Amino acid sequence: MKKVNVALVRLLQFVVFVQFTFIVIVYFGALVLLPLDAIALLIKLMAVIGLHGFIAALISIPAVGYLCLIVYKTPNLCKMVVDNGIELVKTGKAKVEGFNEIIEAVKA
Hints:
Layout: H1 2-49, H2 53-73, H3 77-107
Helix pairs in contact: 1-2, 1-3
């Protein structure tokens, strides 16, 4: 019965690990995809106005680049965003390692 309990705890540990890995990947992926989505939306908006897609891209890419530059130059904003992601990683690691104590208690 102990082996079954240990296996169940290991399974839950793996599920928590996968969950936090997914959350961290989504968090940092969103940081990359947000500017790309802003470019796509600006191109579509300019297409509604009547500009061709290529000309709209030539206008929207520098505009979004400038917005990214403003965000980058804002004091402590980039550091805070990255630190939040690092805190997610640390929290996930602590939760996964917390299962080791449960496994030791089940084995005893």
